[in-house]
Protein: Acetate--CoA ligase family protein
Amino acid sequence: MAHDQAAVREVLEKARAEGRTALTAPEGRKICDAYGIATPGEGLATSAEEAVSIATEIGLPVVLKIVSPDILHKTEAGGVLVGLRDAEAVRAGYDRIVAAARAYNPEASIDGVQVQAMVGGGHEVIIGAVTDPTFGKVVAFGLGGVLVEVLKDVTFRLAPLSGDDALGMLDDIRAAEVLRGVRGAEAVNRRALADMIERVGALVGDFPEIAEVDLNPVFATAAGATAADVRILLAADLAPEPARLTREQILAGMNRIFKPRSVAVIGASGETGKIGNSVMRNLINGGYRGHIYPINPKAPEILGLPAYPGIADVPGEVDVAVFAIPARLVPGALEEAGRKGVAGAIMIPSGFAETGNVEGQREIVEIARKHGVRLLGPNIYGYYYTPENLCATFCTPYDVKGGVALTSQSGGIGMAILGFSRTTGMGVSAIVGVGNKADVDEDDLLTFFEQDENTTCVAMHLEDLKDGRGFVEAARRMIARKPVIVLKAGRTAMGARAAGSHTGALAGDDRVYDDILRQAGVVRAPGLNDMLEYARALPLMPAPKGENVVIITGAGGSGVLLSDACVEAGLSLMEIPPDLDEAFRAYIPPFGAAGNPVDITGGEPPSTYENTIRLGLSDPRVHALVIGYWHTIVTPPMVFAELVARVVAEERAKGNVKPVVASLAGDTEVEQACEHLFANGVVAYPYTTERPVAVLGAKYRWARAAGLLRG
Structure:
């Protein structure tokens, strides 16, 4: 895909020299030509007669558009005329447009009138690019024309992007079916549209000074795609690229933070109720095996350990310093910790940027960077890393070891994570507060957890991302082997921002977050409980090998609800082939129903559940099972739970490893049955058909992103 970068550079430098941030339509056309973006035949006329000459040459009918660096919204200025079909109409139209423009803005500099071949037919779409404050350059695609900001049927991807990503955008809008051709209409040329999207992404990737690109409308037909109108805006100032450490540099610090040989507590206290006391008790009682150094200038010993007036007085090396002192004392203590060679400063104190003390936060970041200290926080509850029995926090201790790492930007959410983990017995490798994210952020944590042999899944609550591209890069590496679940707070727009283009107006924060996180392969959770349940369940489920999901249910009503839930979760219900249908029918009563769902009816004994579930697990064409159970005397809840756990274990031992989820309806005994199933690797929930299927859907979203599904 060859591009004429020199031609683009010439246009941009001319605009810059003239102090302009908006390109004229002819300049936009030159840039499109340089990047192979198809536009209609056109020319710039500076007189009515020249307009007639150009129109005759390119072919009538034509469109006339005012060309002025001072008039961005041409339609509002009366600067657009459409469908001029003869020379006289073009001649009169030229004079009319110029007069309207002068009336709209008497001070405007007018370069002339753009005479453009009239295009139409097919579907109007929008292709554009915008500079997002979190992710940088992103490309947009959606329905275009005058309704673009009303319908807002648009999707975003990071720029530059691949041809496959561009093709995926065509299927990611609600009106995707329209582009494929409905009611006898021709399908659009998908390759031509994807090619134009890819070229726009390349353009803004090559020229970061381009702030926004707006091709609207683009006429998409079976023959190709043509951008009828082009608007390009330049950035007044280029935002600096965020400084990024190498993966090796990140791991050097993170390994010492999560696997420290020694921890100092600055502000350690022997007085119950003090934060410094709680941190000390958690480190000692939690079983941390490294050295613990209490730092307190007024106490010779704390909780049976010798205390030191300052961290410089500690005789050995210190990997981690936990700060439990007021914000005003932090800079001096951090300077001392930096000179000591501390790798990680765990900043529990509040009173920094979250309260408006931006300068105080900037000061401690500068101190940390000067000494090569990684700073976690400030304004956090601390962190846990269970493989090291490390409980460096003032919150309640937690010691159930497992593979889930959880992070939160909020202390309150951190406590919710802790409570859920304790209630469900969820095994965790780490719980980490990131607070203000003055230094260490989600990118650093993902880089560590990706290679951490003790972590199999990461779930993150976040309110924002400091470096969206850095996060995507780290997430993509991890997702190849482990799921990343994100709960993004702030899904609703807090207010519209001024935008110079349709694309800019459409790029609301959450819309971009949603699409880019999906592009990265992240599983987004709609709420806190969803995030926690995904984190609890996904590590228990083996990855599916294909898309065929089968529902086996003892109640027709739950079968319908489970089917609805599968559609909602993006799962594909298998079309049961005749031989498998016959095999299922051999195990169910005549008044039951094969097909999918397989309805075994409610009065069946345990053997019917066992036979149908075993059949679904053993047939290689079935890739996942959803089981709907309802409480009967014939097959009580615990009988059902023990049976399912046994059959699943036996089939897994034979190599028939598939995800299985279950929905249990019944009296309170189903709660214990679900606990038994969870304890035996089968994800099960009482009183809901939606939750088990949503969890399975989350597993599928990760498996697709990781490229684990056949076909």
In short: The chain has 24 helices and 30 strands. The CA atoms of residues 358 and 408 lie 21 Å apart. The first strand starts at residue 42 and ends at 45. Residues 494-500 have pLDDT under 50 and may be disordered.
